[in-house]
Design goal:
heterodimer; A: alpha/beta; Rossmann fold; four-stranded antiparallel beta sheet; 12 strands; 22% strand; B: mainly alpha; MetI-like fold; 70% helix; elongated
Chain lengths: 336, 301
């Protein structure tokens, strides 16, 4: 698996299976996900909608709506401590203090009925003993830290008085208010426009190194990964199909799905080179018995690829790939 | 006619409209003050309430003081609004009656809120489909009983007291409160700021109290004021039928019903309490309208 021993890891997700529970028995949505987040590393989790990346981050935080979706197998360890077996009471003090989380849509993840300052203060009140004026002072510092100009005015603004980028900055201020060691950003830039995206990513990278945070960023945008991530895990149909350093992944992908994703990137100066992936990802509940990408994969070989599910194999250079043919295939990266 | 209108209540939508620059209590007051008519209505209502509450201190004869020397007089300096068939001062009686009407409407509204809102919030925010259907269908059944019929049943069972009658009216109003708060809480429960707040380690109870109540308050405030107006009408109707306030105590409804016999000879005795009812309901409706207007324009969901 990932490099190093357990103590070098900030967060370790092992064999995590998340399933939809219902009358017809559990339907797995995320199957056996393994993630290793080293200290002070930024890990990107890439996948298309429905690939299970958001579910994975919610499962880590234990924020799944257990009436419909549950973790049925696996473990999540934060600096060696298993989070999935913690009593809810202790888990509540992990949330916000040890793990901070940023959500996709800053338009809806701030409550429109309360000011930015009130929402930051409620996090501080929950986890610290700061008095009223000290907490307000801290909130002003946080707003300045996340790059909001004129914090004294903005602290009393309601969310609708702030732009999308500023709201996401407020959200980030809330997430880092108690200086968590781990930050989970679930599609932090998806709802923002391109220039704001770049600023927010830069801010997250800056804060991560400043506050010594280990960070997971989930996204469907390989551009985001290229910009900020040290390592990448690629998810497809509820499984991790490849894990590698950003450089290795982009230049020498080991899984055909990754290769296809890279071929789908637009490139300046190369006309007609963007290639889509034909077909649709399989739906949860009707995954094929073999490799889940096999029906869409140009390299599918019968029977190797379709009879049994290939495991996530060590592919050398501290990287893994879930492909029966990863040893023999020579796939194209963006350098080619 | 009055009974018909009980079923129809303007329910302000909990869905967010265009954002305004006036969020929060201070902003809400500013937007309210911009509605001229509502501001005037509020002033009139406050004056009426103050006058009725302070009427024992005013230089007026006691409302129940019978003076058979001066029955059925028109307005004069001694009796600004004249006297009734027993020579009682009409102004004093109207003020005393207004006090009772306001109190009765308040009682009905508070009962409706207490019965409907907490259950609505709880069921809307977090409940399985079964609990939801059972409780919601129970409130549907309750809603199928007209307010006045329920009040008559209460009075028949418990005795002729305004308190019982108005509690019954409040219970009959409660399904509307239940529905509005359930719908609003269900909307809020699905918002990602609830998830975000939990991701910061907040307890569920705290999340409900701040975020759900904070966002549900707006539609409920408007609904509460509308209900208050219906409460005044309900009290008048019940007392008119002799099921609410008992003579000799003054109430706008009993005053109307006794004056109705004298409509030809002394029409002012019917017109005066009638105008008072109209004034109260009109003011409250205008205020409710403005509140609904403001809160539906506020980011409430």
């Amino acid at each position: 698996m990932a490099p190093g021993n357990a103590t070098a890891l900030a967060l370790e997700v092992e064999a995590l299976t998340v399933a939809l529970v219902g009358r017809r028995g559990p339907v797995p949505l995320v199957t056996g996900a393994d993630l290793a987040l080293a200290r002070r590393e930024i890990l990107g989790v890439v996948g298309e909608s429905g690939s299970g990346k958001s579910l994975t981050s919610l499962a880590i935080m234990r924020l799944l709506d257990t009436r419909s979706v549950r973790v049925i197998e696996g473990s999540v360890r934060l600096f060696g401590r298993d989070l999935l077996t913690l009593p809810e009471r202790e888990m509540r003090s992990v949330r916000g203090r040890e793990i901070g989380m940023i959500f996709q849509d800053p338009m809806t993840s701030l409550d429109p009925a309360f000011t930015a300052g009130y929402q930051i203060l409620s996090v501080l009140r929950r986890h610290t003993d700061l008095g009223r004026s000290a907490a307000r002072q801290r909130a002003l510092e946080l707003l300045a830290l996340v790059g909001i100009g004129d914090p004294r005015r903005r602290i009393d603004s309601y969310p609708h008085q702030l732009s999308g980028g500023m709201r996401q900055r407020v959200m980030i201020a809330m997430a880092i208010a108690c200086e968590p060691k781990v930050l989970i950003a679930d599609e932090p830039t998806t709802a923002l426009d391109a220039t704001t995206q770049a600023q927010i990513l830069e801010l997250i990278r800056h804060l991560a190194s400043e506050l010594h945070m280990s960070t997971i960023i989930t996204t469907h945008d390989l551009g985001v990964v290229a910009e900020v991530c040290d390592r990448v895990a690629v998810m497809y149909a509820g499984q991790i199909v490849e894990q590698a350093s950003t450089q290795q992944l982009f230049y020498h992908p080991k899984h055909p799905y990754t290769e296809r994703l890279l071929l789908g990137l637009p490139r300046i100066g190369v006309a007609g080179q963007m290639v889509g992936i034909p077909g649709q990802p399989p739906r949860a509940g009707s995954f094929p018995p073999g490799c889940r990408f096999a029906p869409r994969c140009p390299y599918t070989l019968v029977p190797d690829c379709v009879e049994s599910l290939p495991p996530l194999r060590d592919a050398g250079e501290s990287r893994t790939a879930r492909c029966a043919r990863s040893g023999e295939l020579s796939l194209t990266g963006i350098g080619a | 006619m009055i009974a018909d209108s009980f079923g129809v209540t303007a329910v302000p939508s909990p869905v967010a409209g265009a954002p305004t620059d006036d969020a929060g209590p201070a902003g809400m007051w500013r937007s309210f003050a911009r509605h001229r008519a509502a501001l005037v209505a509020l002033v009139v209502l406050v004056l009426a309430a103050l006058a009725s509450l302070l009427s024992p201190l005013l230089p007026l004869p006691a409302p129940d003081l019978v003076n058979l020397q001066v029955p059925l007089r028109g307005p004069s300096w001694g009796h600004l609004l004249g006297t009734d068939q027993l020579g009682r001062d009409e102004l004093a009686r109207i003020l005393a009656a207004t006090r009772i009407s306001l109190w009765a409407a308040l009682l009905a509204t508070v009962t409706g809120v207490i019965v409907g809102v907490p259950l609505g919030l709880l069921i809307g925010f977090r409940s399985g489909r079964i609990t939801d259907s059972v409780v919601s269908r129970a409130f549907d059944c309750l809603q199928s009983i007209p307010a006045l019929i329920l009040a008559i049943a209460f009075v028949a069972a418990l005795g002729r007291q305004l308190t019982f009658a108005m509690i019954a009216v409040g219970i009959a109003f409660s399904p509307t409160f239940y529905r509005v708060s359930r719908a609003a809480a269900a909307t809020v429960a699905g918002e990602s700021y609830i998830e975000a707040s939990r991701s910061m380690g907040q307890r569920t109870a705290k999340v409900v109290i701040t975020h759900v109540i904070g966002n549900v308050a707006a539609p409920l405030i408007a609904l509460t004021s509308t209900t208050f107006a219906f409460g005044i009408l309900a009290e008048a109707a019940l007392s008119y039928l002799g099921l609410g306030v008992q003579p000799p105590q003054a109430s706008l409804g009993t005053m109307l019903s006794t004056a109705a016999d004298l409509l030809n000879s002394s029409p002012q005795l019917t017109i005066e309490p009638g105008l008072m009812i109209m004034l109260l309901v009109l003011c409250i409706s205008v205020i409710a309208d403005a509140l609904g207007d403001i809160t539906s324009g506020q980011g409430s969901a």
